[in-house]
Amino acid sequence: MPREPFLPMLRELARCYQAFEAYSGAHVRGLGLTPSQFDIVATLGNTPGMSFKELGEKTLITKGTLTGVVDRLEAQRLVRRSAAPEDGRSMIVSLTPAGKRLFERAFAAHLAHLRLALGGLDAARMQRHETTLRELRGAFEAAPAAEPVPASAGRNQARRRKESP
């Protein structure tokens, strides 16, 4: 099977993401938050609040995980839920005063931490990296969706190849 020319790039992209997650996540956990909790607090910071739908779109948290993370932040009295003024069925999640204080402290500290790793990159280089990453994201978003192959189909095809003369 021929080697795909994009595999080294994808491997490096995955390694880059893993390195970022390890570096960022260790600092966030040192602040007493999980990465998902930090994502929500940082996203809600300097806003009047957001619906669950907006929060899900602006964070890296899946819908299934979002409710549990908000529940835990609410139990710590860092966020509150309230009915949306325009639609009482929809909930708005916002930072409490304690959550706002945490945001101001944790977000500034985390920016300083990230600056230690990224501060040596000049503005032009960061712009080039951003452009390249945007192009990669666009390639994935523009690609046609593949039809899922059932896991059993692969086993059946392999079994048929073994059984045929």
Tell me the major beta sheet. 3 strands, antiparallel
Helix content: 55-70%
Shape: globular
State the helix count.
Answer: 7
- In CATH terms, the superfamily is Winged helix-like DNA-binding domain superfamily/Winged helix DNA-binding domain
Terminal CA distance reads: 23 Å
Strand order in the largest sheet = 1-3-2
Report the strand count: 3
CATH topology grouping: Arc Repressor Mutant, subunit A
Q: What is the average per-residue confidence, as pLDDT, rounded to a whole number?
A: 90
Low-pLDDT residue spans: none
* CATH architecture descriptor text: Orthogonal Bundle
Question: What are the secondary-structure elements, in order, as H or E?
Answer: HHEHHEEHHH
Q: Name the CATH class.
A: Mainly Alpha
Brief overview:
By secondary structure, the protein is mostly helical.
Explain what this protein looks like in three dimensions.
By secondary structure, this protein is mainly alpha-helical. The chain has a single domain, classed as Winged helix-like DNA-binding domain superfamily/Winged helix DNA-binding domain (Arc Repressor Mutant, subunit A, Orthogonal Bundle). It is 66% helix and 10% strand. It has helices at residues 7-30, 35-44, 52-58, 63-75, 97-118, 123-142, 151-163, and strands at residues 50-51, 79-84, 87-95. A three-stranded antiparallel β-sheet has the order 1-3-2. Helix 1 crosses helix 5. The model has no long low-confidence stretch (mean pLDDT 90).
